[in-house]
Amino acid sequence: MKIMKNKLKLPLVLHTIFFILIFSSLSFSAFAKDKALTFGVLPYVTSSKLIKHQGKLILYLEQQIGSKISIVTAPNFKSFIQRSNKNTYDLILTAPHHGRYLEVQGLYQPIAMTQTRIQGLYIVLKDSPYQSLDDIKEQK
């Protein structure tokens, strides 16, 4: 992971698809050891898979800051966005465009970014005459 402003050193083995980890303006040191931080994760897969994907990161962060962290998400993207906009989470793992929006709004600030390649999925309408890239090329 690329570390921003040397605030937190995360192991490179931790990876997530194309999301940015962002953190609120509150300092970790401001939290008591018995207060759990909320780590909001964009619901890009099922809750059980989110926990599996982010488990190592959570353990690492808990060791580094000496505080418990609870992984939370929302039932869908819209709810997650709404909750993020209301400062519901202490830490957020979200899509880059949403992270940038929250930063511009002054709600959160970035602290780390994954180094994995961004991959896109090109799709067409189910009943489209284009079923492959060759079909599109032939239409030119």
Number of distinct helices: 4
- How would a crystallographer describe the biggest sheet? 6 strands, mixed
Low-confidence stretches: 1-32
What's the helical proportion of residues?
25-40%
Shape: elongated
Mean pLDDT: 76
Spatially, the strands of the biggest sheet line up as: 1-6-2-5-3-4
Percent in strands: 15-25%
Helix/strand-derived class? alpha/beta
Which radius of gyration do the C-alpha atoms yield?
18 Å
**Topology, number of strands:** 6
Characterize the structure shown.
It is a single chain. This protein has about 140 residues and is α/β, with parallel strands linked by helices. Helices cover about 30% and strands about 20% of the residues. A 6-stranded mixed beta sheet has the order 1-6-2-5-3-4, with helices on both faces. Strand 3 (about 35-40), helix 1 (about 45-65) and strand 4 (about 70) form a beta-alpha-beta unit. It is elongated and about 65 Å long. The model is unreliable at about 1-30 (pLDDT under 50).
Task: Please give the structural blueprint.
Layout: E1 2-3, E2 20-24, E3 37-41, H1 47-65, E4 69-72, H2 77-85, E5 91-94, H3 96-104, E6 108-113, H4 133-138
Keywords summarizing the entry:
19% strand; 6 strands; elongated; six-stranded mixed sheet
Summarize the model shown.
The protein is of the alpha/beta class and 140 residues long.
